[in-house]
Amino acid sequence: MSQTFKTNVNNTFEFEIDEEAILNLDAIQVSDAEFHVLHHHKSYHVEIEESNFNNKTYQVKVNNNTYNINIFNNLDALIKEMGFTIGSTKHVDSIKAPMPGLILEIQVEANQEVKENDTLLILEAMKMENIITSPRDGIIKSISVTKGDAVEKNQLLIEFE
Fold first, then answer.
1. Which terminus of the chain is more exposed, N or C, with fewer CB under 10 A?
2. Is Cell wall biogenesis/degradation among the key words of this record (predicted)?
3. What is the pLDDT of residues 10-35, one digit of tens each?
4. How far is the CA of 30 from the CAs of 27, 41, 142, in angstroms?
5. What pLDDT shows up at residue 89?
6. Mean pLDDT throughout 142-147?
7. Cα–Cα distance between 122 and 77 in angstroms, integer?
8. CA-to-CA distance for 112 and 106, rounded, in angstroms?
9. CA–CA separation, 26 vs 38, rounded Å?
10. pLDDT at position 68, please?
11. pLDDT at 139
12. Domains defined along the chain, listed by start
């Protein structure tokens, strides 16, 4: 069964894309964050400027036009439809690295009060800066990393009280 992704661009355009379309995309990776794409015999220069894996949001530049993109799969849509998104983040007690990378910045301290979606730290992975945000309101209990640390996927970064 092919997976379908719901995509929202600039909070204006919504469309669905399936795995087959992604697999058939004529794209060549030029650098870590840049691609050359051919679509209907037309050439596009695509650059991923920012990505936030926690929120599934991306800022992508296509031929010098910047687009803000949100991507959701069927499970994300089902969870939202069932109303679990509001309370689901309340039980998060720790933040772990979503991928291996390098800690570029830590913007919080132990015992600091944070609000949902506040920036906690910036993780560089594959030459892209990934903003790690707070999944809930709370108080930072401890920070297990320091600026400049190399981290592995699922490594503990921050704990909440």
1. N
2. no
3. 989 998 888 888 888 899 999 989 99
4. 9, 19, 39
5. 44
6. 95
7. 27
8. 12
9. 5
10. 94
11. 93
12. 4-75 (no CATH), 89-160 (2.40.50.100)
Residue 20 tokens, joined? 């087959």
pLDDT digit string, tens, across residues 49-91:
998 877 788 999 999 999 999 988 877 777 766 666 544 445 6
> Three-state SS across the chain?
CCCEEEEEECCCEEEEEEHHHHHCCEEEECCCCEEEEEECCEEEEEEEEEEECCCCEEEEEECCEEEEEEEEEHHHHHHHHCCCHHHHHHHCCEEECCCCEEEEEECCCCCCEECCCCEEEEEEECCEEEEEECCCCEEEEEECCCCCCEECCCCEEEEEC
For tokens 């297990």, name the residue.
Answer: 144
Angle at 142 between CA 139 and CA 146, to 5 degrees: 125
